[in-house]
Specification:
By secondary structure, this protein is an alpha/beta fold. Helices cover about 50% and strands about 15% of the residues. Helix 3 runs parallel beside helix 4, helix 6 packs antiparallel against helix 8 and helix 11 crosses helix 12.
Length: about 325
């Protein structure tokens, strides 16, 4: 896609992987992150991805500390890989540099992020990716990938974007980050986010790994009810995942869940959590639909109280 300028906003674990893949095909890809000192470190050392995804020593030549710095070199395609709670401010900053026809791809964990982009820029600008790899940040631009259940999924809200969507998916795939364009990305988001929305809160409250939470009888009972509540909300939105989903979900989590959810780390580091876009979004949707989700409500509120308590320290 040499005819398109591409930028990645947010160079944490996920953003580093996306940036490394895109830089393989387009060295002019612009990286954006405000973290102090990151610009110099990445320009000097590049990006190094190891493990199940490998991009060793990828050079970085274009780095901005602020979105506004791209004003005279505005991108055509923007991947947003920040923490979800930064999305509103990123959207506002993008408004100042966005040119007609811009495509904005949310790669976040959470529900409804693509709708926020569509509300700000129109459905024609909004894309969503559901990423199927697990990564951990070891340092600026240094990431270890634990797994990659290929492919990732990409979708657009406006079907007139199908052709450009295919090109984006092909670009990522050709760079080794297998990606498939799908007709209804929200289905794939729900499939992944029911797992994330449920286990993030349980791990955060219990301070357990996913696997340990599922082998604890009380925590597993909470998880089972939360899964059913979230499935009911998804079904009411038109996504009936069926009973087999629950069996498959537990089997998958028991296999890969040796780590704690990232929300545990957020609380440990006194950082804000993404609860408003995870359990909080399930509760929000449920209230709009008139569905009772008492377990989800309790778990969400417990995380919010922990978040508030940690933030006050």
């Amino acid at each position: 896609m040499k005819d398109k300028k591409i930028a990645v906003v947010g160079i944490g674990a996920t953003g580093s992987v996306l940036a490394a893949a895109l830089l393989q095909k387009g060295p002019d890809t612009i990286l954006v992150d405000p973290a102090p000192g990151m610009k110099n470190k990445l320009l000097e050392n590049g990006i190094n991805i190891t493990g199940e995804i490998s991009y060793p020593s990828v050079p970085v030549t274009h780095f901005c500390s602020k979105i506004s710095e791209m004003e005279n070199n505005a991108p055509d395609i923007v991947f947003i890989a920040t923490k979800t709670f930064y999305l509103p401010s990123v959207i506002e900053d993008l408004k100042s540099i966005a040119k007609p026809g811009i495509k904005i791809i949310s790669t976040h964990n959470g529900l409804g992020t693509e709708d926020m982009i569509a509300k700000a820029f129109g459905a024609g600008a909004a894309f969503r990716m559901s990423l199927n790899f697990g990564v951990a940040l070891k340092g600026p631009g240094a990431v270890e990938a634990a797994f990659f259940n290929r492919p990732n999924h990409l979708g657009c809200l406006d079907k007139t974007n199908t052709e450009i969507g295919k090109r984006i998916a092909e670009l990522l795939t050709s760079a080794g980050l297998d990606t498939e364009l799908v007709d209804d990305i929200k289905l794939y988001v729900w499939k992944k986010m029911i797992l994330k929305c449920t286990m993030a809160s349980i791990c955060a409250v219990t301070d357990k790994s996913i696997k340990d939470a599922l082998t604890s009888k009380p925590a597993r009972e909470i998880a089972e009810v939360c899964f059913r509540e979230a499935l009911a909300v998804a079904k009411a939105q038109g996504y009936d995942l069926g009973e087999k989903y629950l069996t498959d979900a537990f089997a998958y989590l028991e296999k890969v869940g040796i780590h704690k959810d990232s929300m545990c780390g957020d609380l440990e580091r006194n950082n804000p959590t993404e609860i408003d876009f995870l359990g909080g979004k399930v509760v929000e949707y449920a209230r709009e639909l008139g569905i009772s989700v008492p377990y989800y409500t309790v778990m969400t509120n417990l995380v919010k109280e922990l978040d508030k308590a940690y933030s006050a320290n």
